[in-house]
Write a structure and sequence with these properties.
The chain folds into 3 domains: 76 residues, lambda repressor-like DNA-binding domains (434 Repressor (Amino-terminal Domain), Orthogonal Bundle), CATH 1.10.260.40; 128 residues, Ribbon (Umud Fragment, subunit A), CATH 2.10.109; 27 residues. Helix content is 35%, strand content 20%. A hairpin with a 3-residue loop joins strand 5 and strand 6.
Length: 268
């Protein structure tokens, strides 16, 4: 927990004395000193006050050692591009552009996923990925295409190419949005999300295939989020018409059976 070190670091960085901060936050200077020296632990109200005062997320104040960050990254945090709220991950998105200076859509194949997990922020790695363009997508947004595998998102078939638009501010993601998410431990996953970032610092991930159970993903495990735009596949999604027809016929037969039973009862 870096809270004490961080508030002391940010206070000195802004040229404020303990008295200055204590007065601004309406607390005793001795209390502030206790927080900075780690001999006292702040409650939720104090955490919120410090978060608002420095314009830094509570999770960042607690979990990130700000003194170890380069100056450029600290400035990003101060400007509101917070790793736990805005999804910037304290970096600029690595991307590629064409000769016309418009951004490409990079392709991340199934084989390339392992390398992408570690190289997603490396401009050199991103530059070797295959690229293409789609004229019907906005030039004002950044897109990337990932190949998915497995049956968890059926009827979108395994092997399909799923395109997503880059999401900078994760708090804008709505419940039931489908997203491609780069995680720290599990690599690239494609799921439907419940957004609990602001209340519980997590996403709840759902599969379209009901055989898979939902699971939680903590914000600190997220590296990138791309919101689903469309998918491309040589396979036609599985036909459900025959199943629907069979169910309809079964219901009809049940109705006939019930009517027959009622008739027999009336005759008794």
């Amino acid at each position: 927990m870096y809270f004490g070190k961080n508030i002391k670091f940010m206070r000195k960085r802004r040229g404020r004395t303990q008295d200055d901060v204590a007065v601004a936050l309406e607390m005793k200077r001795s209390t502030l000193s206790g927080y900075e020296n780690g001999v006292a632990q702040p409650g939720m109200e104090a955490l919120i006050s410090f978060s608002n005062y420095f314009n830094i997320a509570i999770d960042t104040l607690i979990k990130v050692d700000l003194q170890t960050l380069p100056e450029s990254q600290i400035r990003q945090v101060e400007r509101g591009y917070d790793v736990f709220l805005k999804g910037s991950n304290l970096r600029i998105l690595a991307t590629t552009v064409g000769k016309d200076n418009d951004e490409n859509i990079e392709l991340v194949s199934e084989k390339a996923k392992a390398g992408y997990t570690s190289g997603f922020a490396d401009p050199e790695y991103i530059s070797i990925l295959p690229t293409f363009r789609l004229p019907f997508l906005s030039r004002q947004k950044k897109y990337r295409t990932f190949q998915i595998s497995g049956d968890s998102m059926l009827p979108i078939p395994s092997g399909a190419w799923v395109t997503g638009v880059f999401i900078q501010d994760w708090t804008t993601i709505r419940d039931k949005d489908a997203c491609i998410i780069l995680t720290a431990e599990d690599g690239v996953v494609f799921k439907v999300v419940e957004n609990r970032i602001q209340t519980e610092a997590k996403l709840i991930l759902h599969s379209l295939n009901p055989h898979y159970t939902p699971f939680d993903l903590a914000v600190k495990e997220i590296r990138e989020i791309w919101q689903f735009v469309h998918f491309i596949s040589p396979q036609i999604p599985e036909n459900r018409i025959s199943e629907t027809y069979n169910l309809t016929e079964t219901v009809k037969q049940l109705k006939k059976d019930v009517a027959a039973i009622q008739t027999q009862i009336n005759l008794i």
